[in-house]
């Protein structure tokens, strides 16, 4: 019997013989009153087949490892690359084992299997190697991703990849978000390299959210495979929600629903669209002390040009809006809007806001006729969730 190509198989069989007469060792027996009985045919040990076959090279990472047994049942199958074991499952008859996860590119795998049956046990082994991707895919950046950072209840998860993703559904399927206090959410692809996860409602406060990208071996396009998993734990802090009313010139800050600060403010003077504060749900993005603010699209000497150095500034959009200190506007705060579009407050209260800021805190602004665009900074909450989820590669 010729051996199966690419598979090492050990077969054991039970041999039966009748002793008749006085034949010695190696004797086939002689005629006598005892005669020689007809023995039953030997039952062969199980046969094990492994795919990919041993010695295979350049195996695609999305190929499934399959181990089958005939003439018996599989008892144990182990597939390893280095110190990592591949997960798999048996079929109901225990005659087939199939891997459940993609393989790691540029890796050597070993497979060992045992089976048992009426004819005795059998063992088989195999080894193969996976291809090296022409275009390796991995995560270039995750925001938030600062170790030890506490973020606000409005914080999205923003993921940038190192190259374009063609099969967005396959990659999105590999992105996992686990919350201690789960809420419904969805991914939206902004472009071929950028995806953002946002819950339908704000995150429940005081919890941890774990983001894991199970990218290893995922085929993201032609000659493009994920080469590395990545995991980030995000700490969601208290629910800091600030409401700015540009008509009453007040800003009220709540922490977990309780008012902790009321601030007199001045907003954009609204003489032009550029100087009109945007209404809508903003998120705090970053801070600086000081920040130099220069009129956009103007150079020194142009009408309307300004260059201001402001302290305790917290950014809330990409169109130049901040909550910041403005000692020169104290007389207008609480009664008039005189800024170039920012929300300004007294030095002491602006510092308090600055000191208590977390990225992803919510700032709701009402009272103007200019709406915040959903893609202006982190204005993602401006888009209804039903429309947001339409940007997912998995949502219908």
From TrEMBL:
The active site is at 324 (proton donor/acceptor), 342 (nucleophile). Residues 20-37 have a biased composition (Gly residues). SUPFAM superfamilies: L,D-transpeptidase catalytic domain-like (SSF141523). Residues 240-366 form the L,D-TPase catalytic domain. Keywords: Acyltransferase, Cell shape, Cell wall biogenesis/degradation, Peptidoglycan synthesis, Transferase. InterPro entries: Big_10, LD-transpeptidase, LD_TPept_cat_dom, Transpep_catalytic_dom. CDD domains: LDT_IgD_like_2, YkuD_like. Signal peptide: none annotated. This is L,D-TPase catalytic domain-containing protein. It comes from Microbispora triticiradicis. The keyword RNA-binding does not apply.
